[in-house]
Each structure stands twice: as C-alpha cells, then as structure tokens.
TrEMBL record:
This is Geranylgeranyl transferase type-2 subunit alpha. SUPFAM superfamilies: L domain-like, Protein prenylyltransferase. One of its GO terms (cellular component) is cytoplasm. Catalyzes the transfer of a geranyl-geranyl moiety from geranyl-geranyl pyrophosphate to cysteines occuring in specific C-terminal amino acid sequences. InterPro entries: Leu-rich_rpt, LRR_dom_sf, Prenyl_trans_a. Keywords: Prenyltransferase, Repeat, Transferase. The keyword Repeat applies. One of its GO terms (biological process) is endoplasmic reticulum to Golgi vesicle-mediated transport. It comes from Physcomitrium patens (Spreading-leaved earth moss). It catalyses: geranylgeranyl diphosphate + L-cysteinyl-[protein] = S-geranylgeranyl-L-cysteinyl-[protein] + diphosphate. Its EC number is 2.5.1.60. Residues 1-21 are annotated as: Disordered. GO terms for molecular function: Rab geranylgeranyltransferase activity.
Amino acid sequence: MHGRPRQRAGETPPPEVNKKEQAQVAELQKIIPLFMENNRTCCYSSQALDQNARLLELNPEFYSAWNYRKRAVRHLLNLESDEEVRKRIVQTELDVVVRALRVNPKSYGAWYHRKWVIQFGLSPMDAEFLLLKKLLKLDARNFHGWDYRRFVAKTKGVAVEDELLFTTDKINENFSNYSAWHNRSALLSEISKNEAAENGRVQERLQEEYELVKNSFYTDPDDQSGWFYYSWLLGQTIAPVGTHVSGCWPPPKSLIVIDLKNNSYKLPFNKLKVGKLETLPVVICFSNSVTGVNDQTVSTTVDGNDSLELEWRPVERWQKSGRKWTTNIKNCLSSSSGQTSVKILVGAVPGITSLDGQACERSWQSSFQVLFEETSSFEDYADKYDQLCESILQSRSRTFVDSPSSLQYLFPVANHSGSNNEEADGTKIWQLGLLDREIQSCRELLDLEENSKWTRLTLTRLLLTHASYNTSSLKSHIDEARKHLEMLKCLDPTHQEYYQHQLSLLSLKELTMDEFILAGKYVREGLLKLNQLSLCSLEFADRFLWVQNLDLSHNQLRSTHGLEALQLLSNLTLSHNRIGSVTALAPLRGLPLLEDVDVSYNQIGDHTVDTCRVLCSSKLINASLVPPASSQKSDRAEWHLKEGRYWEIKVVFEDLCWQKLNIAGNSAAKDVEFVDALNRALNGTRLITEAETNL
C-alpha cells in the first residue's frame, strides 16, 4: 500500500517479524501438500475448502489455489438449487477474498476471483461499493480498487456522470491521486463517444477539464499525476492525423530518363546506375505501420495495363507490417526506345489498416513517366536537370526552392493537413486558440517555478504542437522549445538521453518543414549531408527517398533502423556515432544498391549487451561458446560464423555485394578473430581496419 515503509535490501528485519514469518512458512509447508492432493483428487469438502482459504490468506498470490476454488464453486453451485444456499456459497467466496486482500490489497488473483464470483449475480452490489469506499479511504491510489469500481459501476449500470463526480471528489481531496486521474480519463473517453456528434459540447467539456487540471499544477508543479492527465487531455484536443501516405519514390509527376546504352537513369537530385537492377524500384511510406498492402489494395498501371501482379513487401523484409513498403516494376525497363506511363493508386480497394485497426483514411494517387533515350538525348536531359539543381543550390532566394518543379523531388507528397470543411476549419481555429491560452498559462507558471521540469516539458510539447498547426510560428516556437530542452538536460540529468532524443527530432522537424534549410544540406547528385546535428534516430526516411549518398557522421546514432526505405542509397557514412554492435547494421541488408559503408570510430565491440538484436532476424541463443579443437585458422573462422561469438556477422553480411566497409576505430577492429570472420562473410568486399588506416 502507498505510505507503507519498504524494507531496504540488506536490512535485517526485527526478531518478531522473523519469528512470524518462520511460523507462516512452517504452516505453508504443512498445508500445500494437502492442497495439492485435494486438487489432484477434486476433493471439495468443507475441510478442504477451509484449508484452501487458509492457504490463500497466507499467500494470496497462489494462482493454483484460486483456480481450485473456481472449480469448487462451480461444483457446489451445480449441486444446489436452493437460492439461499447458492447465495451463501458466493458470500463465502467473497469473504475469502476480503481476508486475502487484508494481507495484500494489490493481489491480482484475489481481485480477479472477486470479479469472477460477482458475475454469478448472487450478491448485492451495494456491498461492493461499501467495500470500495473503505479500501479507497485507506489507499486512495490503489489502481486495483479503481479498476474494480469501474467493473462494479458498469455491472450495476451506474451513470457515467455520477462516477465522474465521485472521481472529482477524490481528486479534490488529493491532486496527487494518479489512479483517480486515470479513472477520469477512462470515464471521459466513454462520454466522448456519446457526445461525438455535439462538437460544441465536447469543446466545452475539454475546456472544463483544462481548468480543473491547472489547479493541480499551481498547487504542486512538481507532482506528475496532473501533468500526465494534462498530456492525455492534449491528445484528446489535438486529434492525430489518420493513416495516410507520407512519402513515395519515384516522386509524383516526375520524368525518369533512362540511358539505354549506359543502363542508368536520371531525374533531379539523382543520377543512378541501375546495372544491379533489372527493374524499377517503387517505395511507398505510410504515416503508421500498416498491413494489407498488396496488388489488390495498391493498383499499378503501366501503359494502361492494370493486370500486373506485383509483390509488395515491407522494407524490413522479415516483418509482416511496416511503415515503408516496396516493390519492383519489371515492365518499365523496356529494351526499346519510347515512353512509359506508370500510375499508382493506393487504397484502390479497402484493406490497408494500421496495427490498431485504423483503415487508411483516404486514397492516394501518383503517376510518373519513364522515357527511354539514346545517350545523346539522355545527356541533354541530364544537363537540364543539373542546371535546375545548381540554380536551387546557388540561389539564396526562396523563389527557386518554392517552385513545384523542384520541390516535388524534395517533398514528394502534399501536406495532408488542409481541409475545405467549414466545421473542420472551425475546430482548428478553436484548437489554435486553446493552444495559445495553454502556452501562456505554462509561461506564467514557469515565471513562478523556473525549475519545474514538468512545466518546461509540457510547454515544449505545446509549442511544437502549435507549430505543426500554424507554420508561421514554426521558427520562433522551435527555437523556444530547443531552449527548454537544453535546460531540461541540466534540471533532470537522469533523463538526459530522452531530452537529447527530443532535440534530435526537433532538428529533423525543422529540417523537413523548411525547404530552404533542406536545400542547403543538399550537395550534388543525390548527396545529403546531415552530419553534426546530434541526431539520435532516423525518423525521416520517407522525406528523403531520393538520396543516393548520405553523410550521417558525427551524430548520436545507435542503429541504422529507418534507412531501409532509401532504396536508391549507394554510399553511407556513419562514422563517429554510437553504433555498438553488428546487428545495428542489419537494416542495411534491404538496400540493393548499397556499395560503400563507413562505420569507423563507433563503439562496435565495446558493449557486452547487444541492444539492437531485435533488428536482426536470427536465432535467439548461441549453440556453443567453445571453438573446435582444430588448430586451422579457417576452421575457427568458419565456426565463429556459424555457431560462435560472431554468428551475427554471417546473418548481417552474408551474400552482400558491398565494395567497401570501413570499421577503423572500433574496438572490434582489433579482434583478429572478428576481422577474420568478417572477411569470410563479406567475400571480396574491401575491409578497412585500424591497422590499414595507419599505413
């Protein structure tokens, strides 16, 4: 229970406690064999049930004992037809539960058993409310009690509004009652379903909730209960954007020119050799992880032929769902000159759903042209594209960057936030007004409590939410949010990694929402430099599907998860990051054009615990850690690849056709057996180690 002092590790309990526990252990040792025998023989006599009740009083977590009582109750109820006798049987069970709860008020088995007994409908529900009143008076934050109250209220048919009033009273008694706040969110979620059509009433109720929760902030700004509820409330106010297409390659309305002689194709920001590909890759990114992407739900038409049977798969090849899906269109790369028109319709028929069951909310269509030319004509197109890219990069005016002919390649999917619905526009105005008021309230509270981490963190979230709705405030809000996150790293060093991750996402948000900043990061022919940005994650791949050469050096990355969507990527620089294992590179297996990878000066080999193993589809345990007795170096290397310390090298690197891999500066590069196993798995790839870089 809350408020009960805990015994610290290493502390010796008082002698009287030891004596009591020893007596209980001795009693348990006598009762358990008797219970096991009664359970085996299905003996449900009064003596057996009394022994079982005593067992549960000594140890309420004995699940087998609760299950035994369930079988006994069913047996006894089936034998009795007298209503009064049946009620006494049920009441006996409720009394057993009460005795167990006195020992442990948070016993899952006891609460579950009580719910099970109540469902027979043979006990008065008012008695349950009296029990809960006593329990919540002793421990107002017992979440088992609150969960049971929701069950009892629903069973009896108590009005949700009445339960909401009870929750309000408990919150007013103690603003730190997290369980009461949680119960309130559950009740309001149920109410909102009934009031969904009354938009004005929903907004009025949300405003009332904001006023209530702000009272808790001003009472104790450092108490997290109210802030958690406030975060939930903000999520109800700002409805999340539904599942939709967030990125694609090739870009909509693009013209891909294929050089028939040199087997390469080009479009703005790309000049790509396709010698390793006999097909044209297509990538579609969704806002959430989805399933159901196939040739039925995604219709592809090539020159009017809509009977193509394409195999869509997640870019994480071992997964059955994902945000990024890819396929290859074989009919595009024809050997004869001419022009091919490709149309893609996502949501042609229903079936694409997110993991929480949400259907893709709108269909989406894209089309692009593939032009086959001889080398001379191809060079003419290439020159025009190069001039376009150069004008974007050299100009410091937004005129070029804002032109649709160039931006469609940097931002291939239109913004989904727009709406022509008057009611939706009115809701957005109300949301922006509410966000403005809440931002001002948090700023005022921060003036009074400048060291309140919850106030700063909530203000940061409000600023970023407001910026996503109103881009005119983007720069000022991002600058202020960055200042608060930097301050939080000092105020709350325990969660410094979390705040650094948020700063990383902030940098990406600023980069992807401002075309001019993004154009400044682009260098030439598909090279994008995102180095020295303190990035901790790669949650941006759906905006950069056109990238061929990517520089992510001098960041804080721990894995390559997210890069698997960049199907055109050929050169990747990840030097001076925090990659700590080979399995962190597993997502790179899904990149068919990748040739040059630089992971120098990371932390591969420094850590004994592999936190990125989940990214690697592999066996869960190693068969053995003892190498074979053979003294042959090749035998030991082969064993390490199959069974030993470096099995992940085989899983990640086998059959890859990379030209170069740089592991210099990693601890593992000094391990001779590691390097031998890596050389054997890569089979022809140039491996750069610490020793070679020193030559």
